[in-house]
Amino acid sequence: MLAFVIATCAYSLSMSITPGPTNIIMMTTGVNHGFRATLPFATGAAIGFITLVVIIARGFGSMLSENADIMTIMGYAGALMISYMGYKIAFSTGDAKEEDSDKPGFMEGAILQWINPKSWIACLAGVSAFNLGASVERLALYMVFYMAVGYLSVLAWGYAGAKISGFLHQGNNLRIFNYVMGGSLVIVALYLAFMDK
């Protein structure tokens, strides 16, 4: 059992700490709105991801993944949402009063996991590699450790963003940062939409 926990934590860390749409959004939210503003999005992302793991482990994911049309539509929908978030980030001014409604929240975090191809790949690989369909206890243990490590990893991006915020709010640094991060999200979205085409 200890080996299972260690492997789960290592897998979660490698999947959650690496750059991707969720982490880019976390960092830019931390920069533009502070660390506290990242908490709803991070919580939504964690719950959305774990819910996806449960559904895939219980067999529903295999039905979806076997239907190429549904997966293609989900991939394009995910790319559109990620591109839209990238656009909003690129043209964000960082003014908390102006853009309070533009901060990504719980629902955006949860939905992003469901339409992000990277999340589906991580879930499908994890469910099969860790044989999570074998027992509810195994699945529950995986969920607890994956969520803890994954949540802390995603929060680290928000914290890093908040810490570099002071530097980025000098001169044109914030505008350049937002252009780069927003543009990166759009590039990620295009890659995810067309990577298998």
Q: How far from one another are the termini?
A: 40 Å
Output the structural class.
Answer: mainly alpha
> Into how many domains do the coordinates divide?
1
* Major sheet: none
The overall average pLDDT, rounded, is 85
Overall geometric form:
globular
Strand content: under 5%
- Poorly predicted residue ranges: none
Descriptive account of the structure:
With 197 residues, this protein is an all-alpha fold. The protein has one domain (37-194). It contains ten helices and no strands. The protein has helices at residues 2-17, 21-33, 39-57, 60-66, 68-90, 106-115, 117-129, 136-163, 165-168, 173-194. Helix 1 (2-17) packs parallel to helix 8 (136-163), helix 2 packs antiparallel against helix 10 (173-194) and helix 5 packs antiparallel against helix 10 (173-194). The chain is globular, with a radius of gyration of 17 Å.
Summarize the structure.
The protein has helices at residues 2-17, 21-33, 39-57, 60-66, 68-90, 106-115, 117-129, 136-163, 165-168, 173-194. The model has no long low-confidence stretch (mean pLDDT 85). The protein is mainly α and 197 residues long.
Index terms:
single chain; globular
Chart the SSEs and their pairings.
Layout: H1 2-17, H2 21-33, H3 39-57, H4 60-66, H5 68-90, H6 106-115, H7 117-129, H8 136-163, H9 165-168, H10 173-194
Helix pairs in contact: 1-8, 2-8, 2-10, 3-6, 3-7, 3-8, 5-10
